[in-house]
Amino acid sequence: MLYLVPLSHFEAWPYRLSVCFWVLIAPLWLSRHWSVRNTFVRGLVGWIVLVPMWLALVQLQTTPWTLLLILSIVWVADTAAYAVGRCWGRRKLAPTISPGKSWEGVLGAVAAIGLYYGVLWLTAPAGSRLVDAQYGLLIFVAVLVLSIVGDLFESLMKRQVGVKDSGQLLPGHGGVLDRIDGLTSTLPFAALVLYYM
User: What CA–CA distance (Å, rounded) separates 3 from 190?
Assistant: First the structure.
């Protein structure tokens, strides 16, 4: 069964702040290509991006299958988007932010998430809240969309400070932030959804 240890009203506020940031502010930031020079504002944004993710990671670890499910949604979406975009990607999603991403990749991720949800819906035991919930597929799609926003936001931030390819192991790889960019936006959302469920 997928569930969380109940949160108090106070413990849930970092997740609410994070979800507000990713749903309201980050898309606007991406569309307008805001560049923030103020160190305090950068630090505040860093806190909003990283701390709620860390808290959600700790919270979700209380039920490892829940955490694995959320992680796997992001992994399936990322893998499908990369594979489909690499093979058939023509129309750029955000050419000035992340030229490698395409709308075809997004459609591939949507198809993969739909298929993944279908498989889980057919095989998951009763009581698996994120799968059997009335709005389970919507939750999966929301996680997908938020993971794309997180990925693009991280790319924009790194591009603006000149460290787009900061990893040393793989050419063109952005280091550790490329591994967690989709999680910064999705884990707090998942923890908040389960809190309300």
Answer: 11
Number of other residues whose CB lies within 10 A of the CB of residue 23? 15
**Cβ atoms 117, 143 nearer than 8 A:** no
The two tokens of residue 106 are 């997004």
The pTM (predicted TM-score) of the whole model is: 0.85
The dihedral region occupied by 113, where left means phi > 0, alpha psi between -120 and 50, and beta the remainder, is: alpha
Q: Under 8 Å CB-to-CB from 73, ≥6 apart: which residues? A: 113, 116, 140, 143, 144, 147, 186
Residues with Cβ < 8 Å from 30, sequence gap 6 or more? Answer: 94, 97, 149, 152, 153, 156
pLDDT, tens digit, 9 for 90 and up, residues 118-172: 998 888 777 666 677 678 888 999 999 999 999 999 888 877 776 655 555 554 4
How far is 113 from 160, CA to CA, in rounded Å?
Answer: 31
